[in-house]
Amino acid sequence: MTEISRRALISGATATAATAAFGAALISPTSLIAKRLPDDSVSSDQNLTNFANLSAALTGVDSSILTPNVDPFGLNAEIHRRANAANADKLQTILSKFTDGKTIEQILAEEGRDESAKFLMRSIILAWYLGAWYEPGVLKTNAYKPRTYNSTRRYSKEVLIPPKEIISPDAYTNALVWRVAQAHPMGYSNLQFGYWEKDPPPIEEFIRPLKQDDPKPAPATTDPTKGVPK
Amino acid sequence: MNDASKKFYDVVIVGSGIAGGLVALKLGQAGKQVLVLEAGGPIPTNINTEMDTFYRALAKVPESPYAPDLSKDPKTVPAGRPTVLSLSNAEDWRDPSKSYLIQTGTVPFSSTYERTAGGTSVHWLGTSLRLLPNDFKIEFPHGARWPRDINYETLEPWYHKAEEEIGVSGSKKEQSYTEEMFFSEDFPMPAIPPSRIDLFIADQINGMKLGYGIEGKDTTLRVRNTPAARNSKPFKQRRTCAGNTNCIPICPIQAKYDPTITLRDAEATGKVDFLFRTVASEIVVGEKERIDHIKYLQYGEDGKKTGEGRTPPAKIFVIAGNAIETPRLLQMSTGDGKRPEGVANSSGQVGRNLMDHPMYVPWGLLPEPRFPYRGPLSTSGIEDLRDGDFRKERASFRIEIGNEGWNFAVGGDPNITTVDLVNGLNNSLTNPKYEALHGDLLVSRLGDLLTRQFRLGFLVEQEPDPDNRVKLSQSQVDGLGLPRPEVRYSLSDYTIRGLAEAKRVADLLFGQLNAVRYTRTPDENDPTAIELPPNEAGRRERIRFMGAGHIIGTYRMGDDRNTSVVNADQRSWIHDNLYLIGSGVFPTSATANPTLTIAALALRTADKIKNEPNNWA
């Protein structure tokens, strides 16, 4: 049985299970949104966990960073929602293959003729890396004809393949590209005066979880993008 | 904070940027009743409003956090302004539905400004360099020279007052690189520490010689700390810089000075009233050529016109638009055709000699990770090439070292390089095999590229040219029906020879740094492409110039009323009670970012206004 989590309760995804577990008190609120069950089943807790693991394989960044224990932003659910809206069938195909133990390369090879899986995966990577949503179809249109950079379009939307939108301010400030740069989001630093005079911590501290057996577990504020106490 | 409560004012100021703000503050502190007209909206009650707009912006250009929305047709905008987006391709800069400025020159005027509480310095970098002693002595044809009363010695105390007022961190020792240059007192805060990139470049190039330099010497190059209006310790109730790497367009914690700070101080004197969303449309001249009042149009938060009016009469009027909006207002002030040349324009110099610091920005990868995207956007520069005998022949420049990787240089990194590596493109030129990566390989390849990115910026002096002009458009209007500024802009041979030397020095520095160049050669149809004169190998190269955001000239100061618009006190030669302030008064551009000199001159003029007995008779 799907583990019941707070998120599942809120989404109403496991209404039956929740009711069984917690009794009648929950019947009323969950039944109010019961009609959303078919949709929400897609974002069941297990599905979201699978999506986080798939995202970790796609991005090269540990899933504990994508879905921290305390997760005020819910980016995993948000990016999952957008990927699902873009191509629900293909997302399910990718997730099934991935949970069957296939690697990204194997999935790409199997889906080779149908490129929609490839571009959906690229949309997911860019959503995590840049906090912006790029439609898979737009990525596909542009990827086939790698243009020479038109230098007269320095700031134009056409320089880049235009993202549809910034997913949210939180998505921008939590974008992975800042971790891979061993930096912090431009316009969002909790670091302290003069940090820039020194090298940042190694890349692993930005993209891998802190080791469980660390003899002196560091406080949560040692997240290197969120500030290092001096 | 939006009310003209008095029937009479001592002073009316148009524009609430750093120049207008400082004059309002100083005269308010002196007990004068001041009314400030600002074309844009008021200071947001919470900076998070602007931060939210910035975070959501697809193109994080200098204007992105500020109203109005960048996508609007300028003819629908009540107080429009040029934007970087309107300069972004070969066509838009000449398209009045995209570009607020009506551009008729050979190349686009590529600097932009804001019309909002605080003016353009809401999005400035914070660089607070003084002009060099020789910058006040240089002369160009057509009477372009600084007035005798404005020189390094006379302005030095005002530079120091400006540094105290806005809060500059710097090192006196680092900035004393000519024999005549002196600092009477220390900067109010110690210097901002250098970045890892600064230190690498200093290691590699300190000690290099180019065979020329300041005071006829063969200057030894040296990376120097850049004085900046950015707190290196808590200062005037504001926090220490936390290195948000976002000075342009917005510092989220106001560790960098911006003029809204001065506006709040001015308001706190209890003597300064503000009218926001109030666009001055005509300066009205009364008896004896004295200014009587100013007509204005007003609009609401929705951008719709709400009414029109006139200021109460005042003793003194100060115009502090900028070097485009001020000459626009002067030229709109024709008194129903009775004064066709506009106000303050008997010399015919209003609108002429528009300048910038055309900027050459080479970029590349360092041989080792030096971690850009950290710290303030710029912390060091190379200043020792700003002066020398060569200025008889060509323009000089300063070199700014960027800490923001290729963000500014390519217009949007880290996004461009990231999309390249994920979607198999090569816009950044770093993915020549058009590989599409994911997982660990994406992390290692992208991390390697981003951590080695760097760029330089050569800010080149621009020769004043009377034909580089701001006029009124005869056909295009803004959302209030006022004529939009028509700008004709070009670069002279003198300026282009400075750009050519910038390119030559950039190549030498990149060689010394063992850096790999990724700087694009612009296409021929790029409007900002400049063909350089033949280099040492006889080859003609093409480079692109960018705007530095420094809008200079158009109502210059001087000693001769026939070739200048204002005197050394920034006072109109014709209208005794009219002052025109800001970088529009600079007769020459030199190479320093202009804001500190704007502030020093504004403080000096505020003092002159206050102490001139005839002003208050």
* Main sheet: strand order of chain A: 1-2
* Radius of gyration from the alpha-carbon trace of chain A, in angstroms: 20 Å
CATH topology of the largest domain in chain B: FAD/NAD(P)-binding domain
Write down how many β-strands of chain A occur, each being a DSSP E stretch of 2 or more residues: 2
- How many structural domains in the coordinates of chain A? 2
What's the helical proportion of residues of chain B?
Answer: 10-25%
Layout: helices, strands, pairs:
The complex is a heterodimer of chains A (230) and B (617).
Chain A: H1 6-11, H2 15-22, H3 27-32, H4 37-40, H5 45-59, H6 63-66, H7 75-99, H8 104-110, H9 116-130, E1 132-133, H10 136-143, E2 165-166, H11 169-173, H12 176-180, H13 204-207
Antiparallel strand pairs in A: 1-2
Chain B: E1 9-14, H1 18-29, E2 34-37, H2 47-56, E3 102-103, H3 152-166, H4 172-175, H5 196-205, E4 224-225, H6 259-268, E5 272-275, E6 278-285, E7 291-299, E8 305-310, E9 314-319, H7 325-332, E10 359-360, E11 363-365, E12 380-382, E13 397-401, H8 415-423, H9 439-452, E14 453-460, E15 469-477, E16 483-488, H10 493-513, E17 516-517, E18 529-531, E19 542-544, E20 578-580, H11 595-611
Parallel strand pairs in B: 1-2, 1-9, 2-5, 3-16, 9-20
Antiparallel strand pairs in B: 4-12, 6-7, 7-8, 10-14, 11-14, 11-17, 12-13, 13-14, 15-16, 18-19
Describe the structure.
- The complex is a heterodimer of chains A (230) and B (617).
- Chain A has 230 residues and is an all-alpha fold.
- Chain A folds into two domains: 1-40, no CATH class; 44-222, no CATH class.
- In chain A, 49% of the residues lie in helices and 2% in strands.
- Chain A has 13 helices and two strands.
- In chain A, strands 1-2 form a two-stranded antiparallel ribbon.
- In chain A, helix 5 packs across helix 7 and helix 7 packs antiparallel against helix 9.
- Residues 1-39, 148-159 and 217-222 of chain A have low confidence and may be disordered.
- Chain B has 617 residues and is α/β, with parallel strands linked by helices.
- Chain B folds into two domains: 9-191 and 227-358 and 464-491 and 548-616, FAD/NAD(P)-binding domain (3-Layer(bba) Sandwich); 360-461 and 492-544, no CATH class.
- Helices cover 21% and strands 15% of the residues of chain B.
- Chain B has helices at residues 18-29, 47-56, 152-166, 172-175, 196-205, 259-268, 325-332, 415-423, 439-452, 493-513, 595-611; strands at 9-14, 34-37, 102-103, 224-225, 272-275, 278-285, 291-299, 305-310, 314-319, 359-360, 363-365, 380-382, 397-401, 453-460, 469-477, 483-488, 516-517, 529-531, 542-544, 578-580.
- In chain B, the strands form five sheets. In chain B, strands 4, 10, 11, 12, 13, 14 and 17 form a seven-stranded antiparallel beta sheet that branches. Chain B has a five-stranded parallel beta sheet with strand order 5-2-1-9-20.
- In chain B, strand 6 and strand 7 form a beta hairpin.
- In chain B, helix 1 runs parallel beside helix 11, helix 3 (152-166) packs across helix 11 and helix 8 packs antiparallel against helix 9 (439-452).
- Chain B starts with 8 loop residues before the first strand and ends in a 6-residue tail after the last helix.
- The mean pLDDT of chain B is 96.
- The chains are: A mainly alpha (230), B alpha/beta (617).
